[in-house]
Amino acid sequence: MTMPPRQxxxxxxxxxxxxxxxxxxxxxxxxxxxxxxxxxxVPEYAKDTDIERALTExxxxxxxxxxxxQEQIIDKDFSIDTEYLRLAIKESxxxxxxxxxxxxxxxxxxxxxxxxxxxxxxxxxRTAIKGAAKHCAxxxxxxxLKELAERTGFKxxxxxxxxVSSRWGSCSTSGTISLNIxxxxxxxxxxDYVLLHELCHxxxxxxxxxxxxxxxxxTAPAKARALRAxxxxxxxxx
Length: 238
Prior knowledge:
Helices cover 38% and strands 26% of the residues. It is built from five helices and eleven strands. The strands form three sheets. The protein has a four-stranded mixed beta sheet, covered by helices on one side. It has a four-stranded mixed beta sheet with strand order 5-6-8-7, with helices on one face. A hairpin with a 2-residue loop joins strand 7 (98-102) and strand 8 (105-111).
């Protein structure tokens, strides 16, 4: 019987709070950040030296990302305006925060004189924004993936839409493509780039020259690396 994941918390002298989840199903170390901690998912029997090595390699980059997320305060001027998702925050005569909308347009209504510096308010706003993104992404992304697959001739097994903060998308060896709900916060050209990237992985499960040649074919005129560079400039919100 597979053992359930085990979690431990350490206070690292250099990197601060580290939350480590030992997962029997994990095959490699995966790291992401929360405003208050660095999250690590590691194989069940990963050594402390393996964990320390991963922190040495990625700790500085993760702390920078963590500081950026801490600095971003969501207030009434916050908005998202992309081809797939439009969202705004509006002070209204409501007693508590609520998310309204459908299609690709959403409004987060908050009570008058809301304290946007409150940690609880910030958490509720992030939850509402991710709720809108999840609803929009579930409607938009599988359909767009299907359209691109039909256009390019790729085959995949199924599509899932998930709330993850470590990657925009992934493709399993069985042909299941997983897409991040936050994709709908990006321009449509970058959404298509990520979807085509994962579709190409159904043929080339690597980033070899063959993979990039395939990407250049489907992002004609051969602009895969330019789109990749543009995507790297867009950090994930929340």
